[in-house]
Amino acid sequence: MRRSQPTVGSAYQPFQPARRPEGKPAGKPTYRVLVHRKFANHWAELVERVGLQQAQQFWDHVSQAPGSTSGIASTVILRGKAGRAQGPGWSRTHHYELSGAARIDYQYHNEFRVRTDGDAHPVVAILTINYSSH
Q: The domain containing residue 83 runs over which residues?
């Protein structure tokens, strides 16, 4: 039996799973959270940079309701070229400000498929993590 080939630009690569900082969530996440491999080291530093509570609040927000506003942090949808969706079905880029020390840009897809014949899963793709000031 031959496996179907991944569609162009739809495999998780260059993204990898972004686990919840310091432990499992209380409930099952709605969205799979992925981080771009260029920012995997930044993700590993998140707790050290912003603290455990803010890191977990971010993960909980994007894993449950990435399209909603956060009652804890500032979230805006970027305009222009910076806000463009990475492909069909993807949201525009959301800019989440954890604190004055960290900002994370992400997009989400409600029915992402790794292969055309694969199961659909809701995913969040963390595109960038920035620790410098504005």
A: 35-130
Residue 30 inside a domain? The answer is no
- Tell whether the torsion through CA atoms of 83, 86, 92 and 98 is positive or negative: negative
- Reported pTM: 0.86
121-130 vs 32-36, strand pairing mode: parallel
Q: What is the pLDDT of residue 134?
A: 58
Residue 66 lies in a domain: yes
Contact 16, 32 (CB under 8 A): no
Q: How far is CA 63 from CA 17, 31, 90, 118, in A?
A: 12, 5, 15, 21
Indicate the residue type of 39.
F
Domain count of the chain?
1
Return d(Cα 2, Cα 51) in angstroms, integer: 47
